[in-house]
Amino acid sequence: MDTQAQEPILELNGIYKSFVDKTGDKVGVLQDISLAIPQGSITGIIGKSGAGKSTLLRCMNLLERPDQGNVFFEGTDLTQAPRDILRQKRHHLGMIFQHFNLLSRRTLEDNVALPLEIAGHPKAKRRKTAQSLLNRLGLSDRENDYPSNLSGGQKQRVAIARALAGNARVLLCDEITSALDPETTTDILHLLRTLRDELNLTIILITHEMSVIRAICDHVFVMDAGKVAEQGPAEHIFSRPKHPATQALLKPFLKQSIPEFIQDRLQEKLCETKENKAILRLIFSGASAQEPLVSQFIRKAHTDVNILAGFMDQIGDTTFGTLVVEIPNNPAILEQTCTFLSTRGVAVEQLGFITHD
Amino acid sequence: MTELILESTWQTILMVTLSSVIGLLVGIPLGVFLFITDKGHLCQNLWINRSASLIINAIRSIPYIILVIALIPMTRLIVGTSIGTLAATVPLSIAAIMLFVRIVEDALRIVPTGLTEAALSMGATRMQVTKKVLLPEALPSIVSGSTLVIISLIGFSAMAGAVGGGGLGDLAIRYGYQRYNLTVVLEVIAILVVMVQCIQVLGDRITKKIRK
Ligand SMILES: Nc1ncnc2c1ncn2[C@@H]1O[C@H](COP(=O)(O)OP(=O)(O)O)[C@@H](O)[C@H]1O
Ligand SMILES: [Mg+2]
User: Fold this and answer.
1) Residue B163: which domain range?
2) From ligand 2's centre to the CA of A25, what distance in Å?
3) pLDDT digits over A216-233, tens only?
């Protein structure tokens, strides 16, 4: 991608942050985090609860001041910037939250206009910008309504409009779909992608759900215990997760690809008295998803392959698929299978065994 | 007699209104100050915060009637006398300030911290956060709390009678207690009930109107 070649719009360098917990001990929440966010990308930061994701995001606009390290936004080191410069830069770093954080006593229009009010723009301009943003986000004619009359999805749309109102170039999103139902989540994520394309925004999304990453992210950072455990293009994270933290996060997501009737029969150990078949999951992505690898493999290995389940999907711009297959439980065949497929970019995972009478 | 009742009612209204206004004027900034200097808030300054809280809590723990007596020298200094409606307003205002500070602090405390975060992330100054987010969001709770404070102040104002401050309490003591004129007592009670009721209804209405 050519975005990689440009200067990153946001760059974190050796960020450390610790808090003093209730017992008075110092806890290192972020430990030596460095990352670069390319302009125009949608970057996901995933990790389980308490991994330090929110703290990291808040370091990006200095709502949380790092103990050590630098934050560069469009070339300016925010950690060194005087207070008024920092405030100016924050106009371009819009933030969206899980619980929307709309002002209950302001109309939608006045909520959206808040960043402009803070920046000291005249009333006429505030009105115009707020109304056009509300229209764009599908809330026309609601400008005089109050947040309490809206659904969660609508509130998040207002919050997005508000984040954009101050002329944001980067959107920092902290679990913005975690309070929404699955359908609304999809809507909001698609909306973000459209906005990215139309306004050339850079989006950073924090989440604990792989499905959110799958829906729109180009690049993923996996966080574990205050460190970046793993990073890479989204399709790599899905097809070849290396770090145990990533594998753990993928588990609930990949489980969906194994039908229940197979899950029920899946054994961890061999059964001595019966015939065993090995169950493998093959994960294809990018080029490997488009080649006839399975048939090539069957021809080469002279073995029977029984396809139990499979699905293909799109992650970002990359085709991604999983296939659950059953092959004879023969060490030689197993070995051959893994080698052949691995060299062709397919990740192989042994799920267990199924017995046949 | 009617004239006396009217005059006393007017004195009570005057004392309570004046002390409420002073209480709000001083209590709101003081409450905001105590809130934003507290741990984890906009202008955290624990040393100043703890010292101020200590003083306020000390004053708050003084029973009102003792506060009135303790404040006699200060009252003399400000009003020139320690007797009369205006003099009674001084300790009443101090009590009002203490009560309003509490109301304002509590009201600010229930504003979700995420709102402050959101405003800061937009590049707001601490002053802007306070004026555009904290106070407007806390307003409904401040109004409903103020209703209670004003009603308490009516109660306190009755004690002004003890130091010759006038008002309905004074009237009830002089005619009801000392001369055992039950009619006057009943009339005073009726007027107080109506007053409290009016404030309660008005307070509830305003709260309901501004809470969206
Ligand atoms: N202001 C704070 N004071 C003390 N501890 C904090 C503070 N903010 C976060 N933490 C701690 O830092 C850790 C990481 O928190 P957070 O960044 O919110 O994680 P995540 O968003 O990944 O769930 C948690 O253990 C949390 O308790
Ligand atoms: Mg979080």
Assistant:
1) 2-211
2) 21
3) 999 999 999 999 999 999
